Amino acid sequence: MWPASVLSSPHVATGRAAIRGSSKKSWPSGKQDNHLLLDIHFGMTRKQFYDYCWGMHNKGVFEDGANSTAVLYKLNGPGRLKQAASMNFYPVFKNDTIYKMWAQFEYDAWAPRNRSLFADSLIKDVVGLYTKWYPGNDFIKLTDPKRGTIFVKVDGNRRIVVGRKDDAHVNVDYTNLLVENVATP
After folding, report:
1. Residue 181 class from Cβ within 10 Å (0-12 exposed, 13-18 middle, 19+ buried)?
2. Which of 28, 86, 94, 137 could lock onto 22 through a cystine, CB 3.0 to 4.6 A?
3. Distance between CA atoms of 29 and 13, rounded to whole angstroms?
4. Residue 79: Cβ-neighbour burial (10 angstroms; 0-12, 13-18, 19+)
5. Are strands 148-155 and 140-144 parallel, antiparallel or unpaired?
6. Mean pLDDT, consecutive 10-residue segments, the chain of 185 residues?
7. How far apart are CA 106 and CA 10, in angstroms?
């Protein structure tokens, strides 16, 4: 997950106007995009999420993820990334429903000696894949002084942020802006 400073930094102010512009195209129209991954979506209850993942696990699509605290989805085969990769993900619940989700990608063959599979290549691959998976507005490239280059996409209520975590990993954060922007007492 990204620290709050990533999107609140004054260094990304020029990109914020573009992000607001892209969200204005869909929010005033009432468009909502709740799709996250496969059949996982914003508003899904904790029980629905667990039942869905259990079913996908039984079909061999999902596995136990990192430290058994995430769900592992293997990205192998055509139409995926340029190399076999792993995607660990897990949602964040508010009032027992999904309103955020994080994902972390890594090439399976990553090693310190294998420079072609570092995160700077992986991030381009992930943004390309996400452009296919999530049609609509384009990703906007921003520079953050702490995280470096990040890519942000807003379609209706769904914001997706893609960025490099370290040499091996790329993080993706999904946020339901309709829930995120609701003031809590």
Report:
1. exposed
2. 137
3. 25
4. exposed
5. antiparallel
6. 40 41 51 93 97 96 90 84 94 96 96 92 95 94 88 95 95 93 56
7. 30
